[in-house]
Amino acid sequence: MAGCWLTMDQTPLNHWMRQLCGSAVLDLSQLGDHRADFLVSIDDLGLEYKLDGQRLRLRKRIELIDVDSLQFGLAQRGLKTKCQYRLETKSTNLDVIALFDQKAITSIATCEKQTVGKGRRGNHWISPFGQNIYCTVGILKTIKPANLGLLSIVTGLAICRALANFGYKAVTLKWPNDLYHQGKKLGGILIESRPVKDDEYFLAIGFGINVDMSNEALATIEPAATCLNLIDSKLLTRNQILLETVSQVLKDIAAFSDESISQLVKAFDAIDAFKGMPVNVLSSGKTIAGINAGIAQTGQLQLETVEGMMLFSAADISLRRA
Fold first, then answer.
1. What is the value of pTM for the model shown?
2. Domains of the chain from N-terminus onward
């Protein structure tokens, strides 16, 4: 489809990868001299498989992202943008930033696996192949610098609205950028911005949502994590979830303005995962205990302490339940 970049998806090895994922079985005899390279590739991607003579079998079929359907679905909703897709990439944030740097084009980037996906404060984001959603929305936005910190809240609320449309109504937000469900992490948001001109920024709004992970895989993640299919197996595809979340994020980021800040704060308060709870704030090597009192109009965390109300910016701290 015009307007889509299907990077890293045109080689014979990747053609066979798509064939394997679609059916969970591949006859290796058709690969000829490429057999050894292909086995190295699927080992690198971390896929579990068994060899039965010339047949390679996966544990189950893997639904790959359909970037053509994503592009078409966005266009149907009046959201015209370019889409990038890779089976494996370093980071979808890096992909949209690179395209903007090269051609001044905004885009959506998604993939099956990230090798250097990161969370806030440089934390590594675990990104297994074909199980979850890894996506970055690249967009230009006119916004006051003081309001940039509110965009993670805008994005989190947008994703919660999108998931609620599918029946996941108990998803909450942990300030400033984590999706939670019943005390377990469901996803996260990482926004990188760069100034273009006065009060205009290019935003790389990255988000990940755990969709279909095993209990064994989730047990290796700290803090405790969950995924949509463990919350409620609704037989939704990753493609359905991706289209809905990207659409809502694009709409809500575009609509955000000074006039919507008060409503944004109220909306966050309604789904604040740590609302009214005793929490610890880790800042500059110190631990500050208090009660989570929600967010201010600036997007800063309000913490009730024995010394009075304190405000914290997202870049400064780590928030933990006491």
1. 0.91
2. 4-58 (no CATH), 67-269 (3.30.930.10), 274-321 (2.30.30.100)
